[in-house]
Amino acid sequence: MKALLQRVSSARVEVAAEVVGRIDQGLLVLVGVQPGDDQLLAEKMLQRLLDYRVFADDQGRMNRSLRDIGGGLLLVSQFTLAADTRKGLRPGFSTAAAPAEAETLFNWMLARAEECHAPVASGRFGADMQVHLVNDGPVTILLET
User: Fold this and answer.
1) Residue 90 domain boundaries
2) Active site residue 78
3) Where are the transmembrane segments (predicted)?
């Protein structure tokens, strides 16, 4: 599983010009599910996202987590994050989980996030989404399990 987290001052996801997910300060996380990923890995990734220290403390150092600041979490499934780019000029997607498998695990991760954190929002799995964000910093970090 790969998660590209971006520290944002605001973010939203639109599908067909309708806002389906929105947060203020927090993390926008693009999630790429790979073959063999399971609930144990998804739980590990979720807890890491909630506890990863990318927000400034009183001295301006990245010592505070999403939990610490009570910020929003916006999860967006993105199979292209799992692309194989090692050769050629076009990505391969054999390294991404099958859509049904990825959707099940992404929805499970989203439900777990809603159980242990607020606010939580998401995009719409498999939809053509428009993601709008104000990257704060900018801070963008790739996490892998």
Assistant:
1) 2-129
2) yes
3) none
Say which of 6, 34, 55, 79 is annotated catalytic.
79
pLDDT of the residue at 2: 97
Q: At residue 35, what are phi and psi to the nearest 5 degrees?
A: -55, 135
Q: Is residue 137 part of a domain?
A: no
Answer yes or no: 79 catalytic.
Answer: yes
Q: Is position 142 within any domain?
A: no
pTM: predicted TM-score of the whole model, two decimal places: 0.96
141 inside domain: no
The number of distinct structural domains making up the chain is 1
- Secondary structure of residue 14 in the 3-state scheme: strand
Query: Is 143 part of a structural domain of the chain?
Result: no
The string of pLDDT tens digits covering residues 86-133 is 999 999 999 999 999 999 999 999 999 999 999 999 999 999 999 999
- What pLDDT was estimated at residue 132? 98
Catalytic entry in 6, 55, 78, 106: 78
- Name the residue among 98, 77, 93 with its Cα closest to residue 32: 77
CATH number of the domain residue 54 falls in: 3.50.80.10
| pLDDT at residue 114, rounded to an integer | 98
Q: Is 80 assigned a catalytic role?
A: yes
Whether the Cβ atoms of residue 50 and residue 57 lie closer than 8 Å to each other? no
Count of CB atoms situated within 10 Å of the CB of 64: 15
